[in-house]
Amino acid sequence: MIDFTKLQSPVIIAGPCSAESKEQLFQTAESIKNIPNISLFRAGIWKPRTSPGKFEGHGETALKWLSEVKQQYNIPVCTEVASPQHVELALKYHIDVVWIGARTTTNPFSVNEIASALQNVQIPIMIKNPMHPEIKLWIGAIERIMNVGINNIAAIHRGFFYYGNDQYRNKPLWQIPLELKTQFPDIPIICDPSHIAGKKEYLFEISQKALNIGMNGLMIETHINPSIALSDKEQQITPSELKILLSKLKFLDTTSDDPLFKNTLDIFRQIIDEIDEDILNLIARRFDVVQQIALYKKEKNVMAFQLSRWKEILKNRKTISKELNISEHFIHHFLSLLHEESINIQNKILNQNDTEPITHKKTEL
Ligand code: PEP
Ligand code: MN
After folding, report:
1. 276 lies in which domain range?
2. 75 C-alpha to ligand 2 centroid (Å)
3. Which residues of the chain form beta strands (DSSP E)?
């Protein structure tokens, strides 16, 4: 049985989005069998489609195929469960690992029902992040499963729904799985680059990034013939493409045996600590000046936000950043945060009743 609590190296999970036919499943498994390091075969049996009228999976019939793949190729298999009936059937067909999908994690009622169905059953379970970026729901689902005595748990990061255009189908928002790791260091996190990417050309960069930040595995949708796939056609790759992708990925170590490594790193870290302190002092100085501007604006009866000034700041700082090799995306976010706080500080002063003492310290200009 896969033990997520004792993973030595990243788990690689591969297989089609959906089990479409016995042939498709067996041909995919046959072509995957010689790719090193694949430890789990996936296939969706019940497919949660956004709109009705699309392929929703073959249910119990496909579970039988999946259990035959397990026997024939001697590989553990996993599938998504979204209700107690799914759990019951998955157990009946000796499915090795089950996962809770993104749409189900969003619903605490469903997670509770699945948790009850899993009570007293020792099966490893993977929990995908909810559709929208609410870490508490993800944690809530993990806790609900833990509460029925299951500790053999992994989380799956599959990105988050968002409005608007972006190159990826779902936004990765890497800080969310990193926050989960900080709160639950013992729960491995497996990245699902397929559902983040939505298109196969982004799979490599997302997978590599996941490994670089210490994620504990990858789940990659693999289909014997993606061009005729009945679900998630654009993001699936063939077993030979998977083999190439895995061979190109760099699997990094958590640390180095080199005795000099820690000392060298410590020196760099000291420099970073000093730079961060300088940055914080500069930010505090900037906010002091903002307070003085606010007092002056108040005296002259002028509002806090000045569009032309904000535009000028953005333009000028972006030009400087370009020369300094700082990304435009980063500086835009950073300045927006600084500006938002400056407006808050100014608002506080502008709204302050004149009889209240104003607590600010003056900076030498
Ligand atoms: C899937 O893994 O095929 C799936 C439906 O994923 P998600 O729940 O991440 O959308
Ligand atoms: Mn899919």
Report:
1. 259-351
2. 20
3. 11-15, 38-42, 77-81, 97-100, 125-128, 153-157, 189-191, 217-221
